[in-house]
Write a structure and sequence with these properties.
The protein is built from 6 helices and 13 strands. It is mainly beta. The two termini are 31 Å apart.
Length: 222
């Protein structure tokens, strides 16, 4: 199976206040979601080839329940205290057959999804510096975003061209899933002094930069 990029999330402050900086910079905000049973909520921005999600904890009890706990979402939401990466990368793609899975992992069935759907999550909890890596066979092709969500941004940004993830730690053993995600064209993983994500849109042709640090470790270039 060839994995394809679907979306990127970063944990942020309650209410997703950091997303206001994008709105001020001319990015159009899309629909928002709550995740009952998982204890999170989001603000989202859509593009022709993917989505950017600002995620926060809405219900501390739900994010620590027995179903959600193995995802380490709670630890990721408190990255400055725990050292876990505050990032997640979702992928999609057509499986070779109904029983095939793209990488070593486990089936996550949160309460907000119908019982017949699952999110396949990588077994990389022992590598906390890595983002949450996951796959959804039901995730739609992002090229359909324009039919459902605003993608004609006021600042003329259209697509993601590069997502660089810096991971804290040196010479760490990386998970098998990370090797597969590293083969996705627009993704690049590097070692760094601390967690940092840099997203470049449209090859950065406008020479603009939006740095959301220190609130969240995210830099946007467009």
């Amino acid at each position: 199976m060839k994995l394809l990029f679907h979306h990127f999330f970063v944990f942020c402050s309650p209410g997703g206040v950091e997303a206001e900086a994008l709105v001020s910079a001319g990015f159009l905000e899309g629909s928002r979601n709550n995740h009952p049973g998982q204890g999170t909520a989001n603000r989202r921005f859509f593009f022709s080839n993917g989505m950017l999600e600002f995620l926060w904890v809405e219900n501390p009890d739900e994010i620590q329940n027995s179903v959600t706990k193995p995802t380490f979402l709670y630890e990721r939401s408190r990255s400055f205290q725990t050292g876990f990466s505050p990032f997640g990368i979702g992928t999609y793609g057509k499986p070779a057959n109904a029983a095939s899975q793209p990488f070593p992992g486990w089936s996550y069935q949160p309460a907000y999804l119908p019982s017949y759907l699952e999110i396949w999550v990588a077994n990389n909890g022992s590598s906390p510096e890595e983002p949450m890596l996951f796959y959804g066979s039901f995730f739609p092709d992002p090229s359909r975003n324009s039919n459902l969500e605003p993608t004609a941004h006021k600042n003329s940004v259209t697509r993601l061209s590069k997502l660089v993830i810096e991971m804290a730690g040196k010479n760490q053993k990386r998970s098998p899933a990370l090797d597969l995600f590293n083969q996705i064209d627009l993704l690049e993983f590097r070692e760094g002094p601390q967690a940092l994500a840099t997203i470049t849109f449209d090859e950065g042709k406008q020479h603009q930069e939006l740095d959301l640090r220190p609130s969240v470790p995210l830099v946007l270039k467009y």
